Amino acid sequence: MSESLKARVRDKILRQRGEDGGRPVADAEGDDPRLMDIRADLALLDQVGEDDPVVHRLAEKYWVP
Questions:
Q1: Nearest residue to 13 (alpha-carbon basis) of 37, 29, 32, 33
Q2: Relative to the CA of 16, which of 35, 49, 61, 63 has its CA 20 to 30 Å away?
């Protein structure tokens, strides 16, 4: 695989968002915990480097190989 783990995690999170209705994460209603969780995970992913343990934790959470 030529993509980094961080890129694969981002792709999987965005794909899951699409499977959950495809609405933009920023438009998530305050009472939709799945979309709020996805938004938080994407923000967290943006803040960390490629080799950060957070990337590995999110990979396990979203089942990214």
A1: 37
A2: 49
